Structures are given as C-alpha cells and as structure tokens.
Amino acid sequence: MNIAPNDLVLEIGSGHNPKVRADVLCDKYLLDDTERGGAIVADRPFVVGDAEALPFRDGAFDYVICTHVLEHAQDVERFIAELQRVATAGYIETPSEVGEWLYGWEYHRWLVNRIDGRLVLRRKTERGPFGRLFHEMGATDADFMALHRRYHHVFLVQHEWRTKIDYEVRDTGDAPFDLDDEAVATAMLQGGARPGPMSRVKSAIWTRMPDSWRAGSKGLLTRGARSARRRVDLRDVAACPRCKGSLRWESGAAHCEADGLSFEIRDGIPILLLPDEAGAA
Ligand SMILES: [Zn+2]
How much is the mean pLDDT over the chain? Predict the structure, then answer.
C-alpha cells in the first residue's frame, strides 16, 4: 500500500484485525461477529458506520483501506462511490472468483476479478460446491495453508487506486477468463513471477492477464506504522451518514440538525448509522 507518512488513513470493516497503520476505524457491527473472525477491536478512534452510507466528510481522508468488505456489499456502486467520496486513494482486497468458489462464504454477494487493472464484479447467485471443506483444511493442515500463501495471487484480488476506482458490474454469469485455456491457467498460477525476456509468447499471454495475478506478495503491514499513526479527533472527520453535513456533538449523542437525526455515542463510540440500520449495531 502506498501510504505516505502524513496520510490520514481510514479502515472500513476493520473488524477483529485492524491494520496497524489505520488512524480511524469504521465497522458496521459492534457486537455481531457473524461475518468476521472474532470480536471487534476498537483500540483507536472508532465509528460505527455503513460502507454504503459512510459517516465522514467529503475528502476527509488521504487513504482508505478496505479489505474483505466489498464482496459483502448490498449496493456495490454506492459502496464504491462512498470510498471515492471520503478518500483520495485507497486499497481494496477481496477474495478472487477462484477463492470465492473454493471457500464458498455464504454471506458474500459478489464475485470479484481484476482484469487489466479494472475490478470486474458479478453478483454471486450460488454458494459453490465445497461447503466447509477447505476452511477445515486451512484450519488443520499447515501444508495447505503454505500452499494457500504461495498462491495467494490466485485466491485474492488486490487493487490499489488513486482518485478513481476503475470497475464494472457485469450481468453475465460467465467468468471473465477461460480457465480451460492452458495459457490462462498457467499464467494465473505463475502470478507474481515475471516473464523471462526470452519468451515473447509468454509476454503476450502476460499482457492479457489480470494485474492481480502478477501482483505478487505485498506486505500489508508497514513496520513502525503504529508510531506513524496520526492523532485525530473524530469530530473533525465524522459527518451525518445521510447528508454528510456537520454534526453537533454532546457527551452521549451527536445530532444532525438538517435531518433532525440523533446518533447515540456508546462508550465513546459514535453509532453513525441511518435509522433503518441502527438496530443492527
Ligand atoms: Zn444530515
């Protein structure tokens, strides 16, 4: 992730394992652990908010980290528009289509691939055939996990963006690549490796491959990032999730005068969800 030392960084869907470098955390669920791996961590400024109605001012952040959240979206276009509204750059990570079929998370709504630098999204209409099989293998077999890590470019989509998120939503049920094509399958497996200068054929294949398959391993955590974190007052970045206007802050609640909405502050954590979603927190 290309995060500069002074960047103000938001993480959305930070859940039980926030990134070290995130200055502000945002998650929709405080108590409900259904769609994550453990209890929420709120060890720094934290806001309960919905990624599709983010409670932050326009351009409040330099960078937004969003890993393993986009595939949960109800309205993926609204979700992406909100990321672009609150930050000037960011990083999106999701399971790839291959990972999605292999692991079959029942609560994911989108199949995601990265083709020529663009996110290609298709609505997921079935869960996939393997149930819990590979989750169990991952939990019990170190060799399988080593294999998963070695081929993480096959199982993950990693997309860093600046200013604009290049994406399209496709209605077609077909995958945007043909794994019956040996060259496509081989290139997917090679992932992070670079094509040799001698192989013109290989390079030609290479240019047709999604960038994520070439991306190779990227460190998600920056050493020393904890000390690089910026001190931030939530009142300077948070906003009404409906009108994105300023809030009036009291000790136990924040208010949007324009919309006549009040938001609870629970143990120092503002619950900035729209009224129809507030029950979920
Ligand atoms: Zn408002």
Answer: 86
